[in-house]
Amino acid sequence: MKFEKYFKNYNKSIFDLLNDLDISLIDKSVELILECKKNNGKILIFGNGGSAAIASHVSVDFVKADD
């Protein structure tokens, strides 16, 4: 498979995924996170393997956003 064809297929798959995303779920997630912060709650983020690295990165983003 040529790289150009691969890239176009990959780009289309990402576009389709984002296009089908239920934006209301993002809004709801933000509301829940803000409510948790308001109530001095905790957000637990889990991952295994590569997902653990992503979870670690996201947790750092939350701490940075709090500053």
Structure, explained:
By secondary structure, this protein is mostly helical. 75% of the residues lie in helices and 0% in strands. The protein contains 3 helices and no strands. The chain has helices at residues 3-19, 23-38, 50-66. The longest helix has 17 residues, at 3-19. It starts with a helix and ends with a helix.
Q: Please give the largest β-sheet.
A: none
The gyration radius over C-alpha positions equals 17 Å
What percentage of the residues does DSSP assign to strands (E)?
under 5%
Order of helices and strands: HHH
Principal-axes shape call: elongated
Q: Which residues sit in consecutive blocks of at least 5 with pLDDT less than 50?
A: none
Keywords:
mainly alpha, 67 residues, 3 helices, 0% strand, single chain
Question: What is shown here, in short?
Answer:
The chain has helices at 3-19, 23-38, 50-66. It has 67 residues and is mainly alpha-helical.
Q: SSE layout and pairings?
A:
Elements: H1 3-19, H2 23-38, H3 50-66
